[in-house]
Amino acid sequence: MRVITPDLLVAAVTELSRGAKLIRLKDVLAWCDWNGVDFQGEGLKNQALWDADRGEAGGKHRLLKFKSGECKQSRLGWALITHGARAREAASQLGWREQLWNGETWDWLGGVAPVPARRPSPVRAAAVDAPCEEVRLLAG
């Protein structure tokens, strides 16, 4: 099984961008599975993919990178530079921001990471919508 490289990452985004212009991480992982490409590598989870991402950004730089926040659980995606305007529009609708590689770390375009909106828990949502008597019953 081949390990993902910067060229294979660009190939995945290129093939997947025939439909959508912003390609999500989960779609790249599915492409890797389908094409027999190892995105895990040695070491940390998805280490080969992160190395390929960094290698592409520091090398030929053919992709734009977008992320939904700073935490590890944040959503991530790429786009071809030629699809930049449409990808930025799609990322904006999702609340994602572009990241740029400065040679050492990823910087946020605009300087600040997006802050994802928190979803209310089902109990809180029910308590907000319920009359006062029902809230007392829910609280115990």
Strand count, sense and closure of the main sheet? 5 strands, antiparallel
Give the helix level as a range of percent: 40-55%
Average of pLDDT: 83
How many beta-strand runs?
A: 7
Topology as H/E string? EHEHEHEEHEEHH
Gross morphology is: globular
**Can you count the helices?**
6
Rg of Cα set:
19 Å
How are the strands ordered across the major sheet?
A: 2-5-4-6-7
Q: Helix/strand/pairing class, anyone? A: alpha+beta
Distance between the termini: 56 Å
Strand content range: 15-25%
Low-confidence regions: none
Description:
By secondary structure, the protein is an alpha+beta fold. About 45% of the residues lie in helices and about 15% in strands. It is built from 6 helices and 7 strands. It has helices at about 5-15, 25-35, 45-60, 85-95, 120-130, 130-140, and strands at about 1-5, 25, 35-40, 65, 75-80, 95-100, 105-110. The strands form 2 sheets. It has a 5-stranded antiparallel sheet. A two-stranded parallel ribbon has the order 1-3. Helix 1 crosses helix 2 (about 25-35). The model has no long low-confidence stretch (mean pLDDT about 85).
